[in-house]
Design brief:
The structure is a single chain. The protein is α/β, with parallel strands linked by helices and about 325 residues long. Helices cover about 40% and strands about 10% of the residues. It is built from eleven helices and seven strands. The radius of gyration is 18 Å and the shape is globular.
Length: about 325
């Protein structure tokens, strides 16, 4: 998992920006970077004073506090990543305070409430709400481009920088149509962004990858869709047996921390990676000590097989 510092914190002295760190995978990644010793700028639109259009209660201040409690330094900066001037100001602050940026995580999304799960899947694209679809693309694509535009000049000042585009699904899984036109575009775009950035960063000694969690036990998945908690999540299995392969946000966070601490991370440049795949390379586990491989499970399920949980953990 890379070289350890004297106190066992391989990312001590490193500075990370997790764009979209309010909840879910973004929060999990921010916290695990902090656990590895990094300074983590946690950005998003929901603060203790203001909620975004998503309407969830989680805040970036809470994320920053969790980062610090884990052993890092969490810094919450309210940022709408669709507003270039806000992103530019954020990067200037990082430059002023630290003079470096080692890890950029483009975990921005926030479009689930616009997708229309599950009813909109299977409907023709011209039957969707156009404004909602355009907003999905703005949230899932434009925000990533804007953030990279302002953050990469700082990240590329020294070799070794890592850019992580976050999406839903591996390249192999997303090679097929996801059943919703705008959602499909939004989730395929980060794969292409990682591929393109890998080429543009290669001669600067930096690396870009695309990373996906598996069946994520996000806050909304637990309290809204499954009506369970992180402690009681298996109570949802009678209604959804495939939830057995789900994973906590910490799992993809540990995948990111392992990548960021790997002195040979350039071997992954341009590739599509998943938490389950990287667990077997780097040896980390989820919070329950297992190594769920959701995308292998889902692929086998859709191929007509009868996957058993024990074979994918």
């Amino acid at each position: 998992m890379g070289q350890q510092t004297q106190d066992g914190r391989p990312l001590a002295g490193k500075v990370a920006l997790v764009a979209g760190a309010t909840r879910g995978a973004g929060r999990g990644m921010a916290v695990e970077l902090g656990r590895a010793g990094a300074v983590v700028y946690a950005t998003g639109r929901t603060t203790r004073e203001h909620r975004s259009e998503i309407g969830r209660p989680e805040t970036i201040e809470e994320t920053a506090e969790l980062v610090t409690a884990a052993g890092g330094t969490g810094i919450a900066v309210p940022t709408d990543h669709l507003e270039p001037e806000q992103v530019e100001a954020l990067v200037r602050r990082i430059e002023r305070d630290h003079g470096r940026l080692d890890v950029l995580v483009n975990g921005l999304w926030g479009g689930d409430h616009l997708v229309g799960f599950p009813d909109a899947f299977g409907r023709k694209m011209w039957e969707h709400d156009l404004d909602a679809d355009l907003r999905i693309l703005r949230l899932g694509i434009d925000s990533h481009l804007i953030t990279s535009r302002f953050a990469l000049p700082l990240l590329t000042r020294r070799p070794g920088g890592l850019v992580v585009e976050v999406t839903d699904g591996t390249a192999a899984y997303n090679a097929k149509y996801r059943g919703h036109f705008a959602f499909d575009l939004a989730k395929h775009a980060p794969l292409r962004m990682a591929l393109g950035l890998a080429e543009e960063l290669r001669d600067l000694g930096c690396t870009a990858v695309c990373l996906t969690p598996g069946y994520l036990r996000s806050e909304a998945m637990l309290d809204t869709y499954k009506k369970v908690t992180e402690e009681t999540w298996r109570d949802a299995l009678p209604e959804d047996p495939h939830f057995c392969i789900s994973e906590s946000p910490a799992y993809v966070g540990r995948a990111l921390a392992a990548l960021a601490a790997d002195p040979e991370v350039a071997r992954w440049n341009g590739q599509s990676l998943s938490s389950g795949q990287l667990a077997r390379v780097y040896g980390f586990t989820d919070t329950d000590g297992t190594q769920p491989d959701a995308w292998r499970y889902i692929t086998d399920l859709e191929a007509g097989k009868d996957p058993q949980e024990a074979d994918y953990r």
